[in-house]
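User: Predict the full complex structure for these chains.
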Amino acid sequence: MNKLPLLLRINGEMHDVLVEQYWSLLHVLRDVLGLTGTKENCLEAECGVCTVLLDGKAVNSCILLAVQCRGRDILTVEGLGRPGNLHKLQQAFIDYGAAQCGYCTPGMLLVAKSWLDEHPGVVPEPDAVREAIAGTLCRCTGYQKIVDAICSAAARVQEPG
Amino acid sequence: MAFQVHQPETVEEAIRLAGEFGPDAGFLAGGTDLIIQINRKRCAPRHLIALGGIDGLSGIELHTHEIALGALTTHKTIEQSPIFEGPLAALTEAACVVGGHQIRNVATIGGNVVNASPAADLLPPLLALDASVVLVGGRGTRRLSIAEFLRGPGITDRSDDELLVSLALARPPRRAATAFIKTGRRRAMEIAIVCVATLLELDDAGSCRTVRIALGAVGPTAMRMPEAEHALLGCEPTQAALREAGRIAAACCAPISDVRASADYRRMLVQALVPRALARCLQRIEVSRQ
Amino acid sequence: MKLSNQFAVVGHRLPRLDAPAKVTGSQIYGTDVMLPGMLHGKLFRSPVPHALIRRLDVRPALAIDGVRAVITAADIPGTRYGPAVKDMPVLATDRVRYVGEPLTAVAAVTAEIAERAAAAIEAEFDPLPTAFDPETALAEGAPVLHPDWAGYAALPMLARDANVASHSRIQHGDVETAFAACFKVYAHCFSTPVVHAGYTEPRAATARWEGDGALTVWTNGQLPYEVQATLADILQMPVSRIRVLVPGIGGGFGGKLRIGLEHYAALLARAAGRPVKLIATCEEELTAAHPRQASLITLRTGVSRDGTLLAKQARVVMDCGAYAGSGPGTAAVALQIVAGPYRTPNLLLDGLAVYTNKLPTGSFRATAGPMGNFAVESQMDIIADDLGIDPLELRLHNIVRDGDTGPAGEPLSAVSVEECLRKAAQAIGWDKRRPGPGRGKGIACGWWMTTGGSSGVYVKLNADGTATLGSGAVELGTGALTGACQVLAEELGLPLASVRLAPVDTDGVPYDYGAQGSRTAFSVGNAARAAAASLRQRIAAFAAERFGVAPERVSLEDGHAVAGEHRISIAEVARLIQLSSGGLIAQGTFINPPPPHDAARVMNHPLPAWTTPSFHAHAAEVSVDTETGEMTVERYVVAQDVGFAINPTGIEGQIEGGVAQGLGQALSEELVFYEGRVVNATLTDYKMPTAMDVPPIESILVECASQAGPFGAKGVGEPPCIEPLATIANAVAAATGVRIFSAPLTPEKVLRAIAQSEFPLG
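Assistant: Here is the predicted structure of the three-chain assembly.
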C-alpha cells in the first residue's frame, strides 16, 4: 500500500508526513516525528499514557488513526510549556512532587489541562479531579500528589508566557 | 492489520462504500471498540469507513414526543447535556462511567449500540427508555426497537450495508424517573459485572403504571426482565414488592461465569441492585414532585 | 541525632532533580531510544505449557520480506542464567516449560513485519505431563520440570531437590513441646495470587555492536551492572566489552531487576549487523514478565491465655513458576515476615520455592512481604478476637523492643514498632473499632530490611562550584537519587540545585548493587558521604594553604571555604585545582555489613539477618456494602519508621504509591490462570487501582534513627506495600464479622462469605 501525505497541526506547527492509513497518531508522533513526550504502553486505551489533546479534548492517541486528525489541532506535552515558561500545571507538578517515574506525567498533565479548560475559573474538589484523571493509570504515586497539584494549579492564575 | 481508510462526506457515500466492500469493511466512529478489536486480532477488516466527516450525525434534538440522538453523539456530549437531567438521568449515569474522559470524548452512542457488548453500559438505559434505532442502508430507512436490534453478543440486526444514523427515545411521562447502577471490581475504567437500569412511572394513586427493568452483563445481550416488570406492574412500590421484583429478575436472568465474576454472584447482585435502582426511581419521582 | 529541620538540605521538601525533564516530556526512557538504521525485534513464544519441541521451522519467517535475522537456541551458546539458580535458557532448547517461553527471536525493518514473521514460525510439540500448582508439583510422582536440576549452578547455600528450587528454614527452641503446653493453638492457611509489578513503561532494550566488537545496550532495567554481568555470561564476553546505559525508567518496582530483553536485542543485532530494539507488549508484560509469586502459607501459632506468643510454625510455599527466578530469595525472607516483629521463643519456619508450569517470577516490591504479612497479621487479629483481647493490645504485648533479637538471633536496635502502632492507632481512631453497621477498622504492623550490597560513587567538583555525582544506581522514580544528592549537598555545604547526576553508563559510573530493596538513598547516600569527606579534606587543605591557616580551621558554608575572615568559593577552588592538578574528584564506597546471627537457627537461607530493618504500622477504616460485597476504603493511615526523612515529600510519595499497590493487591489484582495460561492478559481485566480507587492516605513519618544510615535514615521504598492486604482484611473482618483467607478480597468473595456466615455483623 502506498503511504498518504498528511498535514498535521501539532503544537501550533504544521507537519507534513507520509503515513500508512492504519497508523495511529501515537505512532506518527513518536516514531515518525520523534516527539517522544507522548508515551506508549498498553496500546489499548486502558492506561492513558498516550493522551494528547485533540481540538482541546483529551483522547488516547494509541487508538486514534493519524488520518482522522487531518485539519484538527493536536497538543502534546511538548507544546504545553518550556523551561522558563512552564504551564501552571507543570509548575504545580514540580512543586507538589507529583511526578515520580514520570511516565504517566505527560498524559496526566494533558487530561488535567483539558479538564481545567472545560471548567474555567473552577477550583475543583479532589474527588472531581480523581474522576477527571481516572482514565490515566499511575503506578508510582497513588495519585495523591497529582490530585493536590491539579487542585493547586486550578487555583493559580496562569503566568502570561 | 493493514487497512484502508475511506472518509466519505455523506451518508449515501458511506452506505455505497459499505455495500461495495461488504463484510470486508467496518464503520469507524470513535474507534474505541473497533481499533482495539483489530489490534487484538479479533477482526481484520480491510476497509474502514470513517464517519467523522459526515455532517448531521451527532447532536441531540428535543421534539414534541421524542428525543433524537445522532449516532455519532459522544458519551461526553450525553454526559453534559441538560436534556438528560431529571427523568432521563439513567442515560447520563451510564454515559459518565464508560471508560475515562479520554474514551468518552470520542466514543459514540452509535458505536456502543452497534458493538452490542453484553456488558455495554448504555444499553440497559436505552432498553429501559424503550429507545429505537434508525438505520439507513441500500434498501432504504428502517426503524426498530433496540430490543429487536440486539440479537446476541456482538450481534445486531444491522446488515453490512446499513448505517445506524440515530436513536430515538420517547420523552418520559409526568411522574416517571430512571436510575442506573453499575458494579465492578474497581470504581472506574470498568466493564460491568452487572449493570441495571430501571424506569418507573407512578399513577395518581401511587401504583406502578410503567415498570421497565433492564440488565446488562447477565445474558447474551442487555435485556429487559418482563417477568419481574409484570410482578410490579399495578402494584404499590413497597420495599417488599421491590425486593420481589429483584428476586424474580435474579431468577430469570442468564449470567455466565467468567474471569470477572461467577454466575451466582451476578444473580446475587441482580437481586440486590434491582430493588435499589427502583428505590432510587421512587426517590427521584418524589423529589421532582416538590 | 539532629532533628530533620536542623539541616540545610536534608530533611527538606525539595523538588526532585528530574522533575523539570519529566513535566516537559523531555526525559528519555528506555522505550524512547531510537538509533539510525534500527531494526525491531519480536519473540516467538511457546503456546503450550510443558512439552518437548518436536519441530521448529523458522523458514517461513525468513521468507518474509523485511526480515533481517532469525535466531533459535541452535544459533547461540547454551548458557543458563538466573539470580539464584542458573536454570533459564535464553531460548528454549529441547523443551518448553511455560506458555510464553521464548523459542525464537526475529528482527525486521518494522515491528509489524517482525510480529508477522514470528507468527509465521511453525512449531510442533509433544506434550509432557504438567504441574500447574505447587501442590501438584510436590506430590508423589509429579513430573520433574528440570530433570537436570542437580547439575545447575546455584547459590551455594540453597537446598534444592527436583521441583523444589529451594528450601530454607529458621528454627529455634522446640515448637511441638511448646504447642503441647500452650493455652491454645491456632492454625490457618492463607493464599495469594500472582500479581504484576504494573510499571507503566514496558520493558525495552536496544543493542548496537560497535566497530571494535564491543556491545552497547540501552535498557530501562534497574540493575545495569547485573545486566552487564548476565550479558557477559550469555555472550561469553568480558564485562569490559559490554556497555550498559539506562537513560530513564518508567517504574520498575522490582519487575525490571533481571535481564528482560537485552540479550535478545544483543543477539539479534549481532546476527543482523544492525542495531535492534525490542519493546515488550502489554500482553507480554502480563504473561512473561517477572511478577510476584503466588503463595500458600500455613501458619500455626500457640499462645498463652493472656495472648503471649509461645510458638510459631509456618510452611511457606512460593510458586516460582517454570524457572526459579527470585523464588528462592522470596521463600526465604518470607520466614522473617511470618515471624513478624514479635518475640516468639519457639520457631519452626520453612520456606519452599517450587517449580510449576507457569511463567517465572521476580522480586516485586517487598518480595514476600505482602504474602507473609497477610498470614501473620490476619492470624493475630483472629487470635485477639478469640481471646477477647484488643488486636492493638495483643500486638503491643508481643512486639520486639530494642535489645531483643530477631528470628535468626540477630540483635535488633532502633526498634520502633510500638511508636508506629500507637501513632497509626491514634490517627485512625482505634477506640471506635466498629463505628457503625458495615464499617470497621483494621490494623497491621510489620518490618522489612534495608537491603545491603555495595555502592561506589565518584563526586566531581565542577569549575562553576557544582558537584556531579556519578553512581551506577538508576533513578527508578522513587526519588532516591535526589535523596542521595541532598545528602551530598548537605555534606559539601551546597544547595541541592548545585548537584547534578551523571548519566548511568557502566563505562562511566562505578558499580552499584542496584536500585532495589529500599537501599538506594541509604547506600548511595553513604557512599556519597564518604566521597564528600575526602573532598572536604582536600578543599580544606587547599584553602588552608592559601589562607595560611591550619586545615582544621577551614569549614564549608554556603558554597565557600571559610576560615575567620578568609573566604574562597568552592567554584574558585575547583577551577584552580582543575588547572593545577587535574581537578577535584573523589571516590566513595559503602557496604552495610549484616549483623551477626545464630548460625544454628538458620538452614539454607540466603538472607538470614536483615540489615537496618525498618518498622511500620498501617490502619484503615473500611465500609462494606453488605448486599454487594463492595468495599470502600474510607480512611488509610501509615506510620512508617524512616529513620530520618531525607525528603519528606519524596517519602510520602513512596508511601502513597506503595499503599496504592498494596490496595490493588488487596482488592482487585490477580493474574488468573487456566491450565498454565494467563486468561486476563489485558489491562481491561488485570485491574490496577485508578484515581477513584485509592483514598487519601495519611502518612506519619516516624524517625527512629538507624546507626548505619545517612543521618540515621532507613530504607523506605518497599515497606508501604507490605501491610495493606492484612490491614484491609482485618478491617473487613471488623466490619462484617467474616474473614477472607485468600487475596484479593473481591466483592464476590466478601458477599459469599457474608451469605455463608452464621453471625455476620452490619
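The first helix of chain C runs from residue 19 to 23.
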